[in-house]
UniProtKB/TrEMBL annotation:
Pfam families cross-referenced by the UniProt entry: DIT1_PvcA
Top-rank taxon, per record: Bacteria
Record protein name field: Pyoverdine biosynthesis protein PvcA
Organism, scientific name: Streptomyces lasiicapitis
Annotated stretches, region: Disordered: 311-354
Biased segments, Low complexity type: 325-336
Amino acid sequence: MYELATLDTELAAIEVVREVLVLQRRLRGGGCTGRVCLRCVRHHRDAVAKTMARGLTIDFLLPAFPTKSPNPAKVLGPLPDLAEELALRFLESLCERVAEVYPPGARIRICSDGRVFNDLIGVSDDDVTRYAHELNRMIDRIGAVHLDQYTLDDVYPGADPTRMRGALTTGRGPRPEDLRAEVRGGGDLVHMYRGITRFMLEDLSTPEYTGSRAALQRRSRELAYGVIARSRAWDELLGELFPDAVRLSIHPQPCGTRKIGLLLADTPDVWLTPWHSAAVETGEGRFTLMKRAAAEAVGARLVTARGRPSHFVLPRSPEARSPESRATAAAATAVPVPAPASIPDPRQEPRHAC
């Protein structure tokens, strides 16, 4: 067991939290200030210091890496690609930096939530299984020793996926009417509701869809409630199983809440994730995330690896592009803001739509 003096523990805990918060995914207007929010440091310091005082590895929980978006205009296919690999390498490097401050180091348990709500987003259980297996192989291939994956299959081994989801939500998660009332009441949940609704609208806008835009909007809003409710149930279960873990999130978080929002990639859109986009090399080994259609629109070149699409490479010389291409590139890399008509404010929705 690793031992630190009391003062060293306090200082080391602060430094570890700072290492995480410098990569914080912030909610716009969420209250955080400065390069590293000192209020957030204070909020999470005690949980880290408690683990350090016992000389144990710091356990981080990150619900993430569920499955690829089913919309081919956003991603390269159903399996993890370079977008996920870069995110995994980033998480591994974060743990390595923590070990420089606190030798027992940290472990990030990736609590993949694909099985939790894949039936709502139009992804098969087989695709979720293949994604999770490939993610494990990727973790091994890149030599990430501080990462592991934990899924609903680990909680209910051998069970039918439908039964897993039923067991998960029995006695957990909000009641539908309570969740709708919470969203209508405003507050931080509205941001998540709107973000997930936007994802649902994009994911369901596949070439196979032949219905109206208005119908798709209504369905996306309804499914967003389901995704949030299932995610809350998964969150509660993880709290039961790992009560001492420090909680991370891929969603922007308000200041001083129990989770730290973590930015997994260099992207101008704080909601964009590796499983809703593709990795795009912008030059000199630097990458960003873009939706597949946006990358193709600016003339990015597709690169394959191990027999599968891997990532895009932007044209090297902006001067070589046409004025139209440069304009498209600027639009594609800007922060995408959904049109007000696409995702209505839930507080203004008629009651029968909620």
